[in-house]
Design goal:
Layout: E1 7-19, E2 24-38, E3 44-58
Antiparallel strand pairs: 1-2, 2-3
Length: about 70
């Protein structure tokens, strides 16, 4: 039996990066995501979650890189 599920959602986040030295910094990032999904039989579930990341960052001297 094959089951196909499609859903749309969104995700947003924010990050703060603080330079401790010229090339080394620390960061904290927070994200939130949400999606609503329908399954067989018409049942619908809301999926959401929050994620928080933190750590060290290596900062280059090249500025913005596109």
């Amino acid at each position: 039996m094959e089951n196909e599920t499609k859903s749309n959602g969104f995700q947003l986040g924010a990050v703060i990066d603080i330079g401790i030295f010229s090339y080394i910094g620390i960061f904290i990032e927070a994200n939130y995501g949400y999606a609503k999904s329908s399954f067989l039989g018409g049942t619908t579930y809301n999926f959401d979650g929050i994620a928080i990341y933190f750590g060290a960052s290596y900062r280059t001297s090249y500025g913005l890189i596109f």
